[in-house]
Amino acid sequence: MSRSLRILHTSDLHLDAGLRTTGLPSPRARERCQAHLDAFDWIVAAVPRLGIDVLCIAGDLFEAAQTRPATVRHVAHELGACGRPVFIAPGNHDPMQERSVYRLARWPENVTVFGGAWQSVRLPDLGLVVHGRGFTEPVESARLLAGLVVEGDGPHLLVAHGSDESCRPDRHHPYRPFVPAELDSLPLTYAALGHYHRFSRLPTQRVSAAYSGCPIPQNFADVEQHGVVLATLRADGVDIELLPVPGRRFVTLELDVSGADTQADLVRRLQTELEQRALQEDFVRLHVRGSIAPDLELEPVALREALAPHVHDLTLRDETVPEYDLATLALENTVRGQFVRTLQARLQDAADADAEIVRRALVLGLDALAGRSQSR
After folding, report:
1. How far is CA 252 from the centre of its chain?
2. Residues in CB range of 234: below 8 A, 6 or more apart
């Protein structure tokens, strides 16, 4: 290799994915669609800025069932304008079928969209050979590397969408499976892979291989670091670096407000906690927990308004429990006192599995006797 080669590797952008993927209300889902397109634009703009030689997109660039033709045309135009070779291996969410989304635009000469059979493209100016194949059906179970022949001078770059069986996440189907040893059996230099949404390097022994993961988080389940992979191919090996892509985070917080006895006190505590975490640009799912005064109930609408300046979007979950003085209530010669005494007796005899149910029944019963909401 006469010089090092810089490969930019991304996958799983799922452009135009909507409510089903984000789990957010429609206005926010549309916002997330735009956020993923913004991430794509950032990645393409990084190609000349970072001196990239080749851009690889390892599948699920689009969410085929929801993709708009205008989005496909935009992608084709931007990839053509980047001026470098681009290789796309369609995945199970955007397979290369007769009515594929990839047929909604005219692709520039510098863009190669792989079909269902392995194809090898030699780039003489770079001394590089790129091997790729794409999905042609939403479900494919054949071995990923079956039929791939890698020969001749390299380096050799692989672009594909498939499932590493040695570390498959629970929510991903084993489409086009393989194991790292199958990669090591081929004279590859780097394997740019897609399908898993988390960035990871594969435990290969000879070949460098990585999943780029999705460049920005898609929902609250995506808590790991995201970005785009910069793989630098050198004569003595491959350097792999994850470059962060600008975007809003999805953050889940659990905040304890035990001891709060007024709405103002509760709001101040939550505002302080959120402000310290600098979450103004992020989606936040807030679990409010702890023991609070029995007559203090969270007012969701007012609370969201009070916390709005500190987050981009807030999902609020009230998990507080009223702090009843059970010892004092048990002394009452009232229906309430009898109720407390009865459930305390049941609590003493309850098995561990039933104890929490009895405690919950005790709180709900006291709330009902006081005429309070049953929502908490």
Report:
1. 13
2. 1, 4
| Residue-wise pLDDT tens digits, 292-315 | 888 887 888 899 999 999 999 999
Contacts of residue 216, Cβ cutoff 8 Å, sequence gap at least 6: 35, 36, 39, 226, 245, 247, 248
DSSP state of 116: S
Q: Give the confidence band of 376 by pLDDT, cuts at 50, 70, 90.
A: low
Can you read off the two tokens belonging to residue 103? 């047929």
Whole-angstrom Cα distance, residue 313 to residue 298? 18
pLDDT recorded at residue 174: 82
- Between the two ends of the chain, the Cα-to-Cα distance in Å is 65
* Helix 263-277 with 300-307: angle, nearest 10 deg: 40
Q: Which helix (H) or strand (E) holds 97?
A: none
Distance, CA of 214 to CA of 194 (rounded, Å): 9
The full set of domain ranges for the chain reads: 5-243, 250-369
And the tokens for 341? 């005494």
Query: How does pLDDT run across 184-213, given as a tens digit for each residue?
Result: 999 999 999 999 999 999 999 999 999 999
Cα radius of gyration (the chain)? 27
SS3 of 5, please? strand
CA 37 – CA 372 distance, rounded (Å):
47
* Two tokens, residue 75: 């992608």
Using an 8 Å Cβ cutoff, are 305 and 270 in contact? Answer: no
Render pLDDT for 168-187 as a digit per residue (tens, 0 to 9).
Answer: 766 667 899 999 999 999 99
Rounded to two decimals, the pTM is 0.83
Instruction: State the pLDDT at residue 149.
Output: 95
| DSSP string across 234-260 | ETTEEEEEEEP-----EEEEEEE-TT-
- Classified by CATH at the fold level, domain 5-243 comes out as Purple Acid Phosphatase; chain A, domain 2 (3.60.21)
- Mean pLDDT, rounded, for 71-80: 97
User: Do 130 and 60 meet the contact criterion of CB atoms below 8 Å apart?
Assistant: no
What is the full DSSP assignment across 255-300?
EE-TT--SHHHHHHHHHHHHHHHT-TTSEEEEEEEEEE-TT----H
Read off the tokens for 212: 């780029």
